[in-house]
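Work Package 3 (structural annotation) set out to generate three-dimensional models for the target panel prioritized at the project kickoff. During this period the team completed the workflow that converts sequence records into discrete structure tokens, so that structures can be stored uniformly alongside our sequence database. As a representative example, we reproduce one entry of 383 residues exactly as it appears in the project archive.
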Amino acid sequence: MRILQVIPAYKPSIAYGGASIVAHKISKILSQRGHNVTIYTTDANDRKSRIHPRARFIDGIEVYYFRNVSNSLAYDYKIFLSPSMLGRFKKGEFDIIHAHDFRTFQNIIVHYFSRRFNIPYFLQPHGKPPLCKDEIAPNLKHIFDIVIGNRILRNSSKLFVLNQSEAEQYKPKVDNSKIEIIPNGIDISDYNSIPPGNTFKEKYGITSDCMIVLYLGRIHRSKGLDILIKSFKGLSKRIDRVKLIIAGPDDDYCEALKRLAISLKIVDKVIFTGFLSHDDKISAYVDADIFVTPIFYGFPLTFLEAMSCGKPIVTTNSGDYIEDLSRVGITVSGERELERALFTMLSNNSLREEFGRNARRMATDYDWEKIVDKIERCYYKAR
């Protein structure tokens, strides 16, 4: 099949979240299976830089970087405008279009040309939910949905959602038969040989007998990291040898969290590492005792990474909900309950080990090859 993947930002950019990683993993495996895969994206790299707009091959995938009108709009407001992409679509060039994210200029183009040339397209919002009935309107999201967004949803061949919670949100807007649960995946083979314990601890001056609560991901206020730090203050009073590691790229929230840690007088127990390389990230998972993301939407890749390293998960129900997480950790509501869950997990070795074993087994169900099997079957049915 000739497959076009359309996404606002793509590899080598890492500034716009995990969607580009997911799109690349899917495209790479499809290409390895003999499909002709092309990527249309923008040249947005981060707030200050661009990717050279020439076409290039990455892992056998031809990638076209179209000029983005404004880096500031892209970085600050997630608005990627690439009008030159309009001239690239031709009749008969592709059998399938797979559009990533939801409210994008690129998806307006996909919708128009897929209808014009009768090409089935698949929409994968990556956790970008539809508007709730009680959400404040009018706003840009509401206007987008009225003008074109709802039609983009309805006219898709399939809507790929990350979990059942997300599926329920879309059911009022999309025919239920079109909704397909396609979670994020993991290259499980990458975790068959992991670094020895204490590698991360030694690098950051943490003693081997100290326990670690790890958050790894974008440092953004939507993740509930203030709740985590407040809960950790209570936890640190009950367990002496424990550190909170907050790792990942800053999204204009790190300084506020550092000030919070100072005000709570736990600054000596909280370590902000910034962005971690692949090897350092794996060693952080290995040395962590539990992995925590207080608030999440969709199905975070970091959950799968932690599970692949055999780590239990603690989270809250303030965002999305994944039923299967009950097999690998604890889901709670509220700051006080989060503190109790952290204490329960760290003070009960057998419980922590049981969840860790379950996590490793469960991670194998999310191997990327299995995920792409589902996507490929959907493609074939739509032709």
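Residues 2-185+367-382 form a domain with the Rossmann fold fold (CATH 3.40.50.2000).
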